[in-house]
Amino acid sequence: MEEQIEMVGRAFVDHYYHLFDHDRSALGSLYQPSSMLSFEGQKILGVEDISAKFKQLPFDQCLHVISTVDLQPSAVAGGIVVFVSGSLQLQGEDHPLRFSEAFHLIPTGQGSYFLQNDIFRLNYG
Amino acid sequence: MEEQIEMVGRAFVDHYYHLFDHDRSALGSLYQPSSMLSFEGQKILGVEDISAKFKQLPFDQCLHVISTVDLQPSAVAGGIVVFVSGSLQLQGEDHPLRFSEAFHLIPTGQGSYFLQNDIFRLNYG
């Protein structure tokens, strides 16, 4: 159980930020109609609007570097709560931005997972 | 629904950090035997061990100042995913520490809520 969570959770984190940095338009495949993204305080519901948000972000190239990953079993069977901290380097910016992000990963029933909850915040100060 | 989440979520955040800063020994009442706390990477399961962890923290007085609160409905009926960022002032320290914390709040069925998941991280860098 614990090993399964570690394996799935870490593979998800690698996959998510790899897609974000290299093929952002494919990120929408990780969400479902019930999914919610909170991006710097803006709440966005459902695959289409979430995909549109990623598309509209005001930078093209970026690189996420992960500092910490915390994983816990969730109250949903097979679900995983994921908490990530790291830094985000935007093209043309001198300094990376620190961020934290929380996810709730839920099994689709077809052997994969989707993101029910995704909350992203830059860390200021 | 949205209003309920805002009301409950914000009341929870106020309550949690008020207890933490003024009556830390009472924090255990917010957890159940299935609850998990990840504190700076250390995983702790269940009310007793979580209460013991809070008791053992190497500072007496502290003050949390909240910067942002993000709330989302969870996949569990009535559940709420909570994401908080803020700063933590420890007694005798010159500078506050930045932190982020994610919670999964679940209804007890008796009109209140408990914390199934709690993940705390200081933000460095």
Automatic annotation (TrEMBL), chains A, B:
GO BP of this protein: mRNA transport; protein import into nucleus
Keywords of this entry: Cytoplasm, Nucleus, Protein transport, Transport
Domain NTF2: 8-122
Gene3D superfamilies xrefs: 3.10.450.50
Location of this chain's protein in the cell: Cytoplasm; Nucleus; Nucleus envelope
One Gene Ontology cellular component: nuclear envelope
Complex and partners: Interacts with RAN1.
Function: Has a role in nuclear-cytoplasmic transport of proteins and mRNAs. Facilitates protein transport into the nucleus. Interacts with various nucleoporins and with Ran-GDP. Could be part of a multicomponent system of cytosolic factors that assemble at the pore complex during nuclear import.
Annotated protein name in UniProt: Nuclear transport factor 2
Organism, scientific name: Handroanthus impetiginosus
Lineage: Eukaryota, Viridiplantae, Streptophyta, Embryophyta, Tracheophyta
